[in-house]
Automatic annotation (TrEMBL):
Residues 75-279 form the Translation elongation factor EFTs/EF1B dimerisation domain. Associates with the EF-Tu.GDP complex and induces the exchange of GDP to GTP. It remains bound to the aminoacyl-tRNA.EF-Tu.GTP complex up to the GTP hydrolysis stage on the ribosome. Belongs to the EF-Ts family. Keywords: Cytoplasm, Elongation factor, Protein biosynthesis. The lineage of its organism: Bacteria, Bacillati, Actinomycetota, Actinomycetes, Actinomycetales. The keyword Amino-acid biosynthesis does not apply. This is Elongation factor Ts. The keyword Transcription regulation does not apply. One of its GO terms (cellular component) is cytoplasm. Residues 84-87 are annotated as: Involved in Mg(2+) ion dislocation from EF-Tu. InterPro entries: EF-Ts_dimer_sf, Transl_elong_EFTs/EF1B, Transl_elong_EFTs/EF1B_dimer, Transl_elong_Ts_CS, UBA-like_sf.
Length: 279
């Protein structure tokens, strides 16, 4: 007869994120002792870390926070992933992601490699990740980290499902004058995924490639030679509206642009960052 209850099984599974069969086996091996079962799961997980390296961690969450600096504010955003959404919504995974976000904010790490070496109360971010992965039994990874500074930084986190943590995160840096519209701009970015802030930020080779493609397409359509340049310019404007934040039709009022909304504050957006879990 089992010396543990279904509630014990449920609680330990929710705490660890480990598979049902693994939790049941650990409880049986530990004769129902919860702490011993937890240790069994952890030890067995550590032994199998290398076996999970080739697996895909395609589900995750985005965490972000804003801290004050001497010159304004700095936003920090991280993407932390697991293999399944069951794990992503557990307290253990969410608490681990919070630790990683804190380490990113405190260290100012701008690359994943640097973040993995950042300090936590468990040693480093890598140590924290490995320890939780050992208990959960899934591959976990830190996929992205972003830092953004400005006079003011606003954050928007979007949930694709109410029972899961945020899967899309946006940070927008502005001067103080434009801070009043920053959150609306951040929500727009979450929905419309612009690649660049201004036309000037687009690399010259990207613009040239697009212009060449549009020119060849227009010629292939049999348009008059004299009209091709004008047609291509019109289509380039479409390219800018799709990819440049300030050129995009504003989500809350498509009759105007994000640029016009920002201009109305007599301020400016100085930068932005967008992350989507699993992309």
């Amino acid at each position: 007869m089992a010396n543990y209850s279904m509630q014990d099984l449920k609680d330990l599974r929710e705490e660890t994120g480990a598979g049902l069969a693994d939790v049941k086996k650990a409880l049986e091996e530990a004769n129902g002792d919860r702490e011993k079962a937890l240790e069994i799961i952890r030890v067995k997980g550590l032994k199998s870390l290398s076996k999970r390296e080739g697996r895909s961690a395609g589900m995750g969450l985005i965490g972000a926070k804003v801290t004050d600096t001497k010159t304004g504010q700095r936003g920090t955003m991280v993407e932390v992933n697991a293999e399944t959404d069951f794990v992503v919504k557990t307290d253990k995974f969410i608490n681990m992601a919070d630790k990683i976000l804190e380490a990113a904010a405190e260290s100012g790490a701008e690359t994943v490699d640097d973040l993995m070496k950042a300090k936590t109360d468990d040693g480093t971010v890598k140590d924290t990740l490995d320890a939780v992965a050992a208990i959960i039994g899934e591959k976990l990874d830190v996929a992205n980290v972003r830092q953004l500074e400005g006079e003011a930084v606003d954050v928007y986190l979007h949930k694709s499902s109410q029972d899961l943590p945020p899967t899309v995160g946006v940070m927008v840096a502005t001067d103080k004058a434009a801070a009043s519209v920053a959150h609306d701009v951040a929500m727009h970015i979450a929905a419309y995924s612009p690649e660049y802030l201004t036309r000037e930020e687009i690399p010259a080779d990207v613009v040239e490639k697009e212009r060449n493609t549009l020119t060849e397409t227009t010629k292939a359509e049999g348009k008059p030679e004299a009209a091709i340049a004008k047609i291509v310019e019109g289509r380039m404007n479409g390219f800018y509206k799709e990819n440049v934040l300030l050129d995009q039709a504003f989500a809350k009022d498509p009759k105007t642009t994000v640029g016009k909304i920002v201009e109305g504050t007599k301020g400016q957006v100085t930068g932005f960052a967008r992350l989507q879990a699993g992309e």
